[in-house]
Amino acid sequence: MIWAILGSMEMMLEISAHLSTIELEEYTIKTYQRLERLTREDGVYTVLNVRFEPASSGFPDGDYCFSDGSTYHFLRIERGTIIVDKVTGDLFEIVYWVLAANVQYMSFLYEQRHRIQGQDNRIQMFSQRLRYYSELGEDFLEKGEDEIREILKIAPYQDLH
To answer: How far apart are CA 120 and CA 105, in angstroms?
Structure first.
């Protein structure tokens, strides 16, 4: 049984069982809709491009997300081969995985259209990514900050002058 509790800018779910694939799709789309106004204003909105259905090798290329009743699955298929296969029991984590590609792509588009010559393009792209994640909620923002921090440990910003 699911009870939705709407809070200030945050939607929390109290869940006694895992969501079905249909419920997961509805929840993910509702979460993604929080970005629509801002990303449309920025001129970078893209439709969420994921299929909410089970998949396996040989399926058409793309991202797939589904529930098997006890865990959530995220697959990415390219050339008929599964290249990403993630499984979690955590609702936040699966929604993050599904939305991350779109958030990253829209951040990339924004940076391309507002490029600052001589500046590492990741500065603006990462800043925009965090702006979009903040629209989704504090958990998304924190996870995005952690990911960017790890990227910058390996590949720090570079001055392009």
So the answer is: 17
Q: Where are the alpha helices (DSSP H) in 16-81?
A: 21-32, 36-41
Closest listed residue to residue 65, CA positions, set 57, 56, 75:
75
DSSP-based three-state secondary structure for 81: strand
Can you tell me the distance from the alpha carbon of 43 to that of 27, in angstroms, rounded to the nearest whole number? 24
Mean predicted confidence (pLDDT) in 7-20: 55
Matching residue, tokens 């929840």 = 27
State pLDDT tens for residues 54-72: 999 999 999 999 999 999 9
* The two three-digit tokens of residue 85, written as one number: 């296969």
Pairing of strands 11-15, 62-67: unpaired
What is the model's pTM? 0.86
